Amino acid sequence: MPVTLVTGTSTGIGYATALHFARHGHRVVATMRNLAKAGPLETAARDEKLPLVVRELDVTRQESIDRAVAETVAQQGPIDVLVNNAGVGGATPLELTPEDEHRAMFEANYWGPIRMIRAVLPSMRERRTGCIVNVTSIAGRVATPNQIAYSASKHALGAASEALAHEVAAFGVRVAIIEPGVIQTAIFENSAGATRYDKNSPYRQIMRRNGKLFAAGFRNPGRAETVAEVIFDAVTTERPRLRYLVGSDAEGLAAGRARISDEEWVAMGGGLDDAEYNARFKRYFGIELI
Predict the structure, then answer these.
(1) How many angstroms separate the CA atoms of 262 and 265, rounded?
(2) What pTM did the predictor assign?
(3) Which of 39, 75, 104, 205 is deepest in the core (most CB within 10 A)?
(4) Considering the domain boundaries, does residue 259 fall inside one?
């Protein structure tokens, strides 16, 4: 049974991914920062008699990573699959984002996965087998106003993943990037910073339009279980790809952004009224903002 370690499994994508892998023949180590939230996952695994254990792991603390990885290797065996899912969100214009919140986003969303990769990669390289899956976001492909800290952290992880895939290919280690759109999860409840809206802010139009984009996504949100299925397919397929978009909104944003110039994208932040902005967004991305 392959050993799969998943981070951020208390809710959402990580929770669904841990159960999906365990149901499909993997010995799963489901990790989370706060074991007080482990009850639902442990109950589900126990009810289904799944090969799943829950372990404490905080991706922002190296000693926590070292301990969890060492315990996993000692008790379950070498790690064959790493799913870097733990992350935090937040939505605020750059000028209004405190530096500590910006740094906290990178600690969780970029440095956390990098620490995890460094912890498991030597064994994978030596054994010439393994798969590293990094869950980013469509915001990691399309730079998103009002979410600069989040978007930048996910862009950084995507860039590192692309380069890493090249670096480790000769050792039989694969890397996959998962890029979901709006998924019904608790990411904003678990945010490193605030999701702010201030009707008196000079950035209120940017904030409001970003909110409308999420509202459009939440009218038909992706399911965490769907992302889990894509992650499993990325790990097990005989025809692996580097990037996997998940959700119609993610596909629309990625395709639309590739079709328009940088200048057309920037111009959307200019003095357009709502009717023209919404019309362009629908024309470019196929997404209706209400």
Answers:
(1) 5
(2) 0.95
(3) 104
(4) no
Q: How many structural domains comprise the chain?
A: 1
35 Cβ contact partners less than 8 Å away, ≥ 6 residues apart: 54, 56
First-to-final CA distance of the chain: 48
Helices 39-47 and 12-23, packing angle to 10 deg = 20
Residue with tokens 């965490």: 224
Average pLDDT value over all residues in the chain: 94
What are the pLDDT digits (tens) for 178-213?
999 998 766 555 565 567 777 889 999 999 999 999
Instruction: Of 262, 258, 259, 264, give the one whose Cα is nearest residue 277.
Output: 264
Q: Is 185 exposed, middle or buried (0-12, 13-18, 19+ CB in 10 A)?
A: buried
Give residue-wise pLDDT tens across range 244-261.
999 999 999 999 999 999
> Within 10 A of 160 (CB to CB), how many other CB atoms are there?
17
Query: The tokens 């922002």 sit on which residue?
Result: 60
Look up the domain containing 110 and give its range: 3-198+221-247
Catalytic residue ranges: 150
- CA dist 285 and 249 (Å) reads 8
**In whole angstroms, what is the distance from residue 113 CA to residue 11 CA?**
18
